[in-house]
Amino acid sequence: MSNVKIPPVLRQAVGGERVVQADGATVGEVLDDLCTRHPAVGAQILTSDGTLHKYVNLYVNDEDARLLQWTDTPVGDADTLMILPAMAGGAR
Amino acid sequence: MSPSYQDLLAAAREVIPEVEPSEVAPRVAEGAGPLIIDVRETGEWDQGHLPGAVHVPRGFLESRVAGVAHDLDHELLISCASGQRSLLAAVTLRDMGYTNVSNLAGGFARWKQNNHPVEVPRILTPAQRSRYSRHVLIPEVGEEGQLKLLDSRVLLIGAGGLGSPAAYYLAAAGAGTIGLVDDDVVDESNLQRQIIHTTDRVGVNKGESAKEAIRALNPEVQVNVHPFRVNRDNVLDLLSDYDVVVDGADNFPTRYLLADAALMTRTPLVHASILRFEGHASVFMPYDGPCYRCLFPEPPPPDLAPSCGEAGVLGVLCGVMGNVQATEAIKVLLGIGDTLAGRLLIYDALGMTFTELKVRRDPDCPSCGPNADLQLRDYEAWCAGVGSHDHEAAGAPA
Ligand SMILES: [Zn+2]
């Protein structure tokens, strides 16, 4: 069971939580389980063929998953997966 | 009987070699001379000194010398006004273990008499020394750093949530020239967080409003108001005129435009973005670390990227993140410390946690990679296209 950190824009899709838990031995499996538990998340971060949108950054602890093995990156109970889309807010 | 002053000087001459100005002047002129430590008081130093000398007043010699002469076998030449204070200072350094210490015979007076070149330091005025005294006290800033800040030029994109606190503190810090790019006017709903503006300036251009606040806080800061939106036609000219750019924009097209323009003009970019209780910050040093697009290759579609105007923001969050930006801008300008280059700082105000993620340069980055074809594009169309296309593919409502 890994912790998944949810960005502000997706919190509504998980009932307002900042961190939720999901099962899986890899980043991909954890995301699958997350999207099963919270289908509204899947609608936002997955394309119709089930792959991740390019604007979704994933971090395993403090490392960019793109530089690990992307969705095949193994994760354990102690790992935190962070979903991180860019934010634009600043001036207004 | 205790030794007199003359006895002390005589004993010192026994152990400290003395060097005539004419002997060492050619080496000093070539920049190949010994490390010259001037032990006079600040008022004397300010009138002029040997070129390349470092200033360590006699009273701070023992405590500060290690900061300027790291090796005990460093060749040191000690100077003062006439060569006497420096002679005794040289003995102290010898006692501290420095093995190669000589004294400038006749001191700065003889050096000047013999018409060797003199450097007159740029110094803070008494008023500046008083205003910035808490900076001058910090070894990493000091008078030299404060002068550097006063000479520096910072461009802020947006005088809103992030730009307000950043501009306010940068002005207080004595960042000499501050440019404010904002076409918006102050609205009542801004005042919950945009602390540089005031109730009686509702309706005034944000740059002009901020200029008024800065004039009241620190009149010596030059404020350039740019009352328009940054765009493809003006961005390169704007950035070229400044040493660092602070991105407090409120939309992706502007952020990606700035990211590319910062690369093209080689301007360090201090980034932050905010939403509700969360803030991101990083520093992008052009071609010396990742760029914004290495971190975020593409923007999310509009409904995953609401503005603060749509989704809200905790007012004080702007203060934290805007001042992270001001801090990083000052560090970049002074070349001190470790900036957020290569790191994304995430501040979660609800959990009161600061998390850091590693950001690496993407070798295939379309903006800063070796094969990048970097040119300014229509960022509005690109951001809209990237977002809507992908999003429709996901089968979600546009
Ligand atoms: Zn890049």
What is the compact description of this entry?
The complex is a heterodimer of chains A (92) and B (398). The termini of chain A are far apart.
Provide tags for this entry.
heterodimer, A: 92 residues, five-stranded mixed sheet, B: 398 residues, Oxidized Rhodanese, domain 1, Rossmann fold, eight-stranded mixed sheet, five-stranded parallel sheet, 17 helices, elongated, binds zinc ion
Overview of this protein structure:
- The complex is a heterodimer of chains A (92) and B (398).
- Chain A has a single domain (2-85), classed as Roll (Ubiquitin-like (UB roll)).
- Helix content of chain A is 20%, strand content 21%.
- Chain A has 2 helices and 5 strands.
- A 5-stranded mixed sheet of chain A has the order 2-1-5-3-4.
- The termini of chain A are far apart.
- Chain B has 2 domains: 5-113, Oxidized Rhodanese, domain 1, CATH 3.40.250.10; 152-388, 3-Layer(aba) Sandwich (Rossmann fold), CATH 3.40.50.
- Chain B is built from 17 helices and 13 strands.
- In chain B, strands 8-7-6-9-10-11-12-13 form an 8-stranded mixed sheet, with helices on both faces.
- In chain B, strand 7 (177-181), helix 11 and strand 8 form a beta-alpha-beta unit.
- In chain B, helix 1 (5-15) crosses helix 5 and helix 10 (163-173) packs parallel to helix 11.
- Chain B is elongated and about 90 Å long.
- Chain B starts with a helix and ends in a 5-residue tail after the last helix.
- The A-B interface holds A 7-10, 18, 43-44, 46-48, 53-57, 59, 62-64, 67, 82, 84-92 and B 157-163, 182, 184, 190, 247-252, 255, 272-278, 280, 295-301, 304-309, 311, 313, 346, 348, 350-351, 355-360, 386-387, 390-391, 393-396.
- Residues 290-291, 293-294, 362, 365, 367-368 of chain B line the site of zinc ion (ZN).
